[in-house]
Every structure is written in structure tokens, then in C-alpha cells.
Specification:
heterodimer; A: alpha+beta; Aminopeptidase; eight-stranded mixed beta sheet; 4 helices; 8 strands; globular; B: alpha/beta; Rossmann fold; five-stranded parallel beta sheet; 7 strands; Rossmann-like_a/b/a_fold (chain B); UspA domain protein (chain B)
Chain lengths: 188, 122
């Protein structure tokens, strides 16, 4: 899909993970890129298996361990960028960028136990910092328009609405300048 | 049951066609397939008609396949109302690379405006 809209201006620099902070409940949380380890994978499965279906968005995360694993296999591929918020050995949240043509689609999930503690903001900023460092140029997402908490988080980060005509809002963010804007640098 | 299946050439619309034809053969539904102009689809309408006709034939159904011009959502609702259809069947949405389901503009319009039941095929 190349007809999606993005802001003209490139977003500010985001912090590159790993980063560490204390959430609003005083828990120490570490943001790290997903390293492809079995422990990381299984911890993600555990988080999504315990995920409240009320917090599903447009069908994801799917329900049931088998479908969770199939979905994770698709979004944890080598061409995807994934960042995890760790609280000790538990996954508090996970954010991902999945390639879609010349852009990436973003999704973020924070487990119920860790919501409303400021983790989502750190997590999405960490993912975007990781993406910026890896040369990602454009990011888009869809969000259900009634999900005010998510919409205001994305706006605060710098996402701009690119399509408001359906059930879901589509939003876009520019992380790095387009190829033709980098004077003298080759594409890719 | 008198069923109107609207297809516009997207992957999910073909899935809806297959499922509706399959179901019509079992339930003895009175099926009409309406081929609409989906602006998001690049498949040629005549090609869609051919595909629908062969699906109907293979299932041994006596179903009409009709090309419908104009705004897809409102035409489907209008046909259902004027011709006494009891159900409208449509594709259940596009899946993004992430796995998120987005409902197309045709389904959205039909869902909100139809007086009949609407089935979205997943």
C-alpha cells in the first residue's frame, strides 16, 4: 500500500534500547530488542496466553496457544523489528514493526497487570528508537477510534491521522527522511 | 433463504463466494451473486463474473450472477430491499501484514444500512 499518508516532517529522535526505568508502581522495567532466544519467545507466548480478550485489537493477539504461536512466528521474522518490556523474567509488554512494502506496520500490547503505569509510552518510544537506528523510514498503524488511550498515546508520540473514514483510524509517522531526501546517499 | 452475496474481487470476497455457494448447495438457498465495483480491487469485473459463474456451476446451483454498477454498498442494500432478500453475505475483511483485520468500506456501509441480516465470512 503506497497511498498511505505520512507527516512531512521527520519525527524527533527516540531513545535506542536497551533502556531501563521505574514504572508508576515503582517496578523496574527494561526495554530490550527481541533477541530471538527460546526464553524470549516462550515468555511472549505466556504473556499473550494470559492476555485479556477485552484488550484485543482487530483480531490480535489471537486466542489460544496454537494460534498465538502461528501469529508470533509471522511477526518475529528476521525482517521484523521487535522490542520487549521486561519486568524481571516476565514480559510486561511487546511492540512490533512488520514490513509492508516501503513502510512498516506498528502494533503494541501491554499486559493488563502492567497497564496505566507509563510502560506503553516507554515501549513505543523504544520500538521507534530501534526502528530509527535500523533505518526504518515510515511507520503506519490502525487503531479503533473508541480506543482513546491508544489514540492519545500515538498522537503524543507524533503520529498523524492519515485516514479517518472507516471504523479504524489510520495514522502515520516518518522516522527517517525518504531516500531522495538524503543528498548523495544511495537508496538502501 | 433468499441470499444476496456481494463480491468485488478482493481475496476475502472470493472466500465469501466459496462459502456462500457451498452453503447454498446444502441449505437449498435461493442465491444471487452481485458483482460490484470495488474501487480497492484491481480484478476486472468480467473476470469476477466468470469466476462466480464457474463456482455456481461447479456446485450445481441455479444461481444468478449479476454485474451491478454504481456505488457498491448502497446498490447492495437497495437490491436486498427491493427484491426481498433475507440476507446479505460479504467478505469478512482484509488482513494487514500484522494480522489486524480491517473491514472494507462496502461492508461498513452495508452493516450500518441494511435492514436484512448481514454475514461477514471469515
Amino acid at each position: 500500500m503506497s497511498d498511505r499518508g505520512y507527516p512531512e516532517a521527520v519525527a524527533d529522535e527516540f531513545p535506542v534500547p536497551p533502556t531501563e526505568f521505574a514504572d508508576r508502581e515503582g517496578r523496574t522495567v527494561e526495554i530490550r530488542p527481541y533477541e530471538g532466544t527460546d526464553e524470549g519467545y516462550e515468555a511472549l507466548v505466556e504473556m499473550y496466553d494470559a492476555f485479556d480478550p477485552a484488550d484485543r485489537a482487530q483480531g490480535i493477539p489471537p486466542g489460544g496457544e496454537k494460534r498465538i504461536r502461528e501469529w508470533l512466528d509471522a511477526i518475529l521474522g528476521d525482517d521484523c523489528l521487535n522490542v520487549i518490556a521486561w519486568c524481571g523474567d516476565d514480559v510486561a509488554g511487546h511492540a512490533t514493526l512488520v514490513p509492508d512494502g516501503d513502510a512498516y506496520e506498528l502494533a503494541i500490547f501491554v499486559h493488563q497487570e502492567y497497564q496505566r503505569a507509563g510502560i506503553g509510552t516507554h515501549l513505543i518510544r523504544g520500538l521507534l528508537g530501534h526502528g530509527q537506528a535500523e533505518g526504518v523510514r515510515k511507520v503506519w498503524l490502525t487503531v479503533e477510534r473508541w480506543n482513546r488511550a491508544a489514540v492519545s498515546l500515538y498522537k503524543k508520540i507524533g503520529f498523524e491521522t492519515s485516514d479517518a473514514e472507516s471504523f479504524e483510524l489510520e495514522m502515520g509517522l516518518r522516522l527517517n527522511p525518504d531516500a531522495d531526501a538524503d543528498a548523495g546517499e544511495s537508496d538502501e | 433463504m433468499k441470499v444476496l452475496c456481494g463480491i468485488g474481487g478482493s481475496d476475502d470476497s472470493f472466500r465469501a463466494l466459496d462459502r456462500t455457494v457451498e452453503r447454498a448447495a446444502v441449505a437449498n438457498d435461493d442465491l444471487t451473486v452481485a458483482v460490484v465495483e470495488n474501487p480497492d480491487s484491481s480484478v476486472d469485473p468480467d473476470e469476477i463474473v466468470d469466476k462466480a459463474e464457474s463456482a455456481v456451476q461447479e456446485a450445481g446451483l441455479d444461481a444468478e450472477v449479476r454485474k451491478v454498477e454504481g456505488d457498491p454498498g448502497s446498490r447492495l442494500v437497495e437490491i436486498a430491499e427491493t427484491e426481498g432478500f433475507e440476507e446479505i453475505v460479504l467478505g469478512g475483511g482484509h488482513t494487514s501484514p500484522m494480522g489486524k483485520i480491517t473491514i472494507g468500506s462496502i461492508a461498513e456501509f452495508v452493516l450500518l444500512n441494511a435492514k436484512t441480516s448481514v454475514t461477514l465470512v471469515r
